[in-house]
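dude i think i finally got it to work??
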Amino acid sequence: MGLRIHFVFDPMGWCCISMVFFVWLYNSFFIPKLVLLPHFDEGHIPAALVISYYLASILCVTSLVRASVADPGKLAPNPHIPHTEREQWELCSKCNLMRPKRSHHCSRCGHCVRKMDHHCPWINNCVGEDNHWLFLQLCFYTQVLSMFTLVLDFCQYYYFQPLTRVNEELLLFRHELALLRISAFMGLLMFAGISGLFYTQITGILTDMTTIEKMSHYYDETSRLRKPWQQTFAEVFGTRWKILWFFPFRKRQPLQVLYDFPSHL
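look at this
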């Protein structure tokens, strides 16, 4: 399920995800080139710091790629509905297909998605049951990489020792201040924007409500019955092993629900 490739033909989405890739590529190239590697060569910083930055960068772009091309939970045209679950399915008024409750029809993608949270143009894909965990990882590692970048930009001028073997004739080092200011601006912008989104996603998981459900202002007395937070996160990530919640290099398996809780829709 987690390995199915899913592409959305949306020019605006392609433009948005290209901007995200550009920010990642810019910081992943200039920060090591201007800060990490020169200071490592002169013995000012340990190798662990360089490895940590590259690791955060790899985890960030892996989550981005996988979240953008993963099937979010698109429903098949003629889904097989088990007899015992027919009461949990309903007819979509837009595509006239049966779908399980808590699914939603995405007008941009043109199909229904299981437990759809929202359509995100920054990954050019819907965020649904099958790729929600990757979107959470993307938000988390984007914050880590952005904060890492901001700290390194600050340390370059206020903490690190001056470099002695920098070739001032190189174009990069002659424009170092401008390049790092751009990096800091993009890092601050990404960190501020993603932090709010990540907080919204976490609160949604804790309350077991999608963004669409919260925006629809749906309230019910039964919604007061909440799942334990470990259960809701385990269902999103497809595993109860908490260490695996941070690894995008795996395939998600639907977690068997042990308890029957009322749905919001």
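The two ends are 25 Å apart (CA to CA).
im so relieved honestly
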